[in-house]
Amino acid sequence: MTRSAIVLGAGMVGVSTALHLRQRGWDVALIDRRPPGEGASFGNAGLIQREAVHPHPFPRRIAELTRIARNRSVDAVYHPSALPGLASPLLRYWWHSAPRRYEAVSRAYARLIVTCLDEHMALASAAGSAELLRPIGWMRLFSNEAQMDAARLEADMAHRDHGVGYRMLDGDALAEAEPHLMVRRVGALHWTDPYSVSDPHALTTSYAHLLAAKGGRFFLGDATTLERAGAGWRVQTAEGPAHAAHAVVALGAMAGTVTRRFGYSPPLFGKRGYHRHYGMRGNAVLNHPFIDEVSGFCLVPMRAGIRLTTGAEFARAGAPETPLQLERAEPIARSLLPLAERIEDRPWMGVRPCTPDMLPVIGRIPGQHQLWGAFGHAHQGLTLGPTTGRMLAEIMTGTRPFIDPAPYGAERFN
Questions:
Q1: Domain range holding 114?
Q2: Rounded to 10 degrees, what is the CA torsion of 171, 153, 189, 66?
Q3: pLDDT tens for each residue of 266-277
Q4: What is the predicted pLDDT for the residue at 40?
Q5: CATH number at residue 362
Q6: Is 276 left (phi over 0), alpha (psi -120 to 50) or beta?
Q7: Residue 159 host element (H or E)
Q8: Which residues contact 286 (CB under 8 A, 6 or more apart)?
Q9: What is the pTM of this model?
Q10: Is residue 363 part of a domain?
Q11: What gap in Å lies between CA 394 and CA 21, rounded to an integer?
């Protein structure tokens, strides 16, 4: 029993953690109310973002705050009824985004991000799914030279400080790279390092299949039934109670609902996001994922079609879906690419788990023997799942972690 674990949550973070523990000889039960990869890991831009060495700070320019406050944009919307409950975490988010504090946050964040390509490729190669990781990067498209100049400075800094690869394209080079783009832009920043995942759900399930092949087990179950059982833990599943010496909470935005029962209330807040797939007319293709800076949303070539993803929606937990961002974005997207029919009747919606200091929680839950956390990855759960899984498995097995875990410890919110 001492080398056994229940991992609650079968998204990319939970599956990767379970797999790394199993590779170290632990008896592992992965538990979720849905099959692997059907939560927030299902819906995203499908990017393993090696370039994302700086997390998203809270906007600080008055013009930007005013634009968002009008609640008419594509990249960020909010339900007014949600604001009272979000006031405290968003104020702390703003505080951590001050330049001096943000610099320290970014240093810790970058230590995780720079590992993501190698950690994913190690698992994908073992799982037989490396073909899902397309080394094509992604692009930011610009409508004026000032945007291009600012992006070039950002890219130069990321390259100098963290070895991030990029290239700048003028308007002609962009038109050659994306011949079916229907608008003329002055150019683009092409981040060349990231993998573009052609099917994020398939990638997560491939890691889950590798876990099963190595002897790990998956159960449908209810994470909220987690309870102490002697010196260990027990949770109810469809096949009866599962027992283990250790328990890992990898439940994304729902993590706090479990940890609060054991005296730990992290200031998590959720950013909802939507996506929908479209066909392309005729023989048109999209070669690279891109964000058009004028519009603020992402278009990505996927197995299922062209995926249109939205930015952030702030809403109360359990509030009805309101895909206003997709409704605003679709006509703009159709002006950029020759999109055809919608592939799904309804858009997908999921919740990204965020912390005020922009860093995930990775480590022991304070005051609880052999209870661990792996959540709060915001927009980068897909990117950082294998990195998080390896680090936490090393901590749990008493091995020196390959990244210093101190900045991500749960006790910083205790």
A1: 1-57+97-132+196-268+355-414
A2: -90
A3: 999 999 999 999
A4: 87
A5: 3.50.50.60
A6: beta
A7: helix 145-162
A8: 178, 180, 280, 299, 300, 301, 306, 337
A9: 0.96
A10: yes
A11: 8
